[in-house]
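Researcher: For the record, we're logging two predictions in this thread. I'll number them. Prediction 1 follows.
Model: Prediction 1, sequence and structure:
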Amino acid sequence: MPPWPRRRHHHHHRPDGGWGPQARTRWYLRWRLQRRIFFTMASTIVATGLIVGLVMSRSASSYKHELRRVGVFVGDRFAHAWDDPMERDGLAREMADDLDVDLRVEDASGAALGSFGRRACTSPTATVPVKRAGVTLGSVAICVDRHSAGPGVLWPLGIALFLLWAFSHRLAHRLAAPMVQLERVARELGSGNMAARVTIDRDMRFGEMPILASMINEMAERIERQLSDQRALLATVSHEIRTPLARMRLLVEFAREGASEKAASSLEELDQEIVGVDALVSELLAASRIDFGALRRTTLVAHDVAQGALDRAKLPLAVLDDQAPGLTLQGDATLVARAVGNLLENARRHGGGVIKLRVMRRGPRIAFEVDDDGPGFARGEEAQVFEPFYRGSGVGEKPTGSVGLGLALVKRIAEAHGGRAFAHNREGGGARVGVEFSIS
């Protein structure tokens, strides 16, 4: 039979405080991806603004060039009419009306000769010198500020930029939010929550995301149905297997009556084999409950768990050393009892017997550890004892009634409850094998 597959459990945070792959993925989707989308769009807006500003600056340069040419034309017109005040004022009035600007005519000393237009020209946009034969006759100040946008245009421009910035933030959130949902559902499905589904909300109404979300939901539904069918099949098969095993043990007991000594010895070996098969079925069923996520967590009293395990193993209560009386934990009663029972059975079969079953608290966890009276572990064997079907270097071919799944199951039960399994040699001889469960 091939080794029972081990399930890997990934935690969001490693014990050393670092981030695991799932935590990094969530951080990337919730923050970095959204920020990257937002800053990409914002950078595009800024780049567009810079390009528009560059184009406007070039346009302004061309505008100034044209303004100088117009100034030469205006200066020539005023130079021809300068000596006749009436003709000069008429030209200024006509130009102010036609161009809808404000003008102020000054002589060579800067004294005002007249103002024309709707209002006085106090801050000229341009001043055109009036010359004739290289002699400056005066100047014409032109004001076009009432046509310029001025500070008033900054408000609409600022509001437009703010709205674009806010729109970029909202769009980045809408693009990243579906990815966060998909990551959450994939993580929950991977951790055994087959009821997790992607909610198709308003952020997923359009595009490819609703299609992808629907496909993930359909996949989750199919997996959930398959696991449910497998659980039902497993329960049926376990019942069908255990029924003939019980009948076989009963027939062996009947056959022992009146059997010869040699036949009785063979029947005893047969009974041991039947017990071993029954134990193997029990181990596989317990492992399957973890695989299918069928844990039923209840409040367990640590002392009662340890006492029950000792009773089933037919060991005296004096073996128990409860250093955390009254302490409780949340766990599956059947699996937690199985883990502690397997520790005792391992010490009985491979460790020369149980010396002590100790219950203690270690930070946020509760530990059950068993001291045995055996030779201890060979170097490097402490981690291997939790591998499926590992029998140990000192076991050889000696029949022990064990198939090598006991401690492997202990490790899986511990990890399913947020804990760990451990093993090491004791000072003075013997081994200590234990399991820790998360209290909360």
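Researcher: Logged. Prediction 2.
Model: Prediction 2, sequence and structure:
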Amino acid sequence: MKDNWRDVLKRESDCKYVIPKSYRQDMRVPGVIIISEKLMPAMYEDDATMQVVNVATLPGILKYSLAMPDIHYGYGFPIGGVAATSLTEGVISPGGVGFDINCGVRLLRTNMNREDITQRSDKICNTMFSVVPCGVGSKGDIRVGETNLKKVLEEGARYAVRSGFGWEDDPEFCEEEGAMAGADASAVSRRAIERGLPQLGTLGSGNHFLEVQYVEEIYDEEAARKIGLAKDQVTVMIHSGSRGLGHQVCQDFINIMKTASDRYNIHLVDRQLACAPIDSPEGKKYFAAMAAAANYAWANRQYLAHLTREAFMRVFRVDSHQLGMSQIYDVAHNIAKMEEHDIDGKRQRVCVHRKGATRAFPAHHPQIPKKYSAIGQPVLVPGDMGRASYVLRGTERAMTETFGSICHGAGRLKSRTAAKADFTHEAVLKDLESKGICLKAADRRAILEEAPQAYKDVSLVVESCVCAGIATKVLKLRPMIVIKG
């Protein structure tokens, strides 16, 4: 460990630690980490804390450089990082969004209970695995052609629904209603288009998954009723993103931004923080391309929701409407967005980078569906494939302290390389089987890389957010069937 962070971090409350601006001369703002004492040992194991410091040096950064309790090392920004920058003096950085632009989570409800699935778990597992393409470089049967792909990039989930893939009200229950404004297909490179054409409706690899879950515990009865869930009720969680298209957009603009940073005389303490002024030609073009990739991701999850409904219809031999497979919500994890926040007592439009962090807007916020106005935005926090996931609610405190943001999941505890070295395929499968979880994966390596023990305990991560007052718990979901890329 290069720095003794135990001496540097100043405890402000039980779950909030501050890196003073005085820690390093080039910091423009302090660093703030939302985390409990139980999770701090894992944070000391990599250089993610130094990345919080590095982000605090970016031009135009406002208030502080933030990290959520699922913090771990990422590209430029830590995963779990949040930063808001001024639209007039600030920058936008691809490293503050990540390679998998709008990697995110969608949650569907069903009208079935736990027992309905238990009796058919193998059949459901096998059917979902056969219907939904997954794995590295996977290609799907949903082909839109280049002309229509440009519509996907600018219209997102709405295009997929209009084309017959989904329910009419699905986009209403997406962040940004499934289509981010400002997207421009012409800002996306030819290579990104080529990579995106065959991958719509595919799950991908890594930590992406489909999970059939049941409601194990309810903490907030009113909120659970509003989102339409009861104890033992079955849900389906879909975790995927913008696939090769988003990765290529990020890579394209990292290359552009490295040159732009020099041209605009931006001193970078880490070249992975390559950036450009938000109002520069490079900054505007990156935002337009990033928004297009985000829309691709929302469309991708829309197609995946359609395929999931198809799989359930095959097994239960009734229409998905009869199965009650409506959408609860869909949230982004890796994105930069223009939002209004209070900055030093003044309402200001800023660019919020969320890198492995989730938007968490409170009750009565104008940008959440009317159905949820009284309770706040449902916040979807996936865990690992052997433990649990959560639905939370955003709070007013999140708006004032974290730019309306909280954690995005459990956060890695071990690297993929370490996980493959520390676990065996047989041991992971045995552990999941002992918990009654049916698993199908496209690659044996994915099972090792995504072993539950490779992740922090999501319950501790969630409790850190609750402790900090930036979220409240609604319910806990337990996995029954897991499909991995």
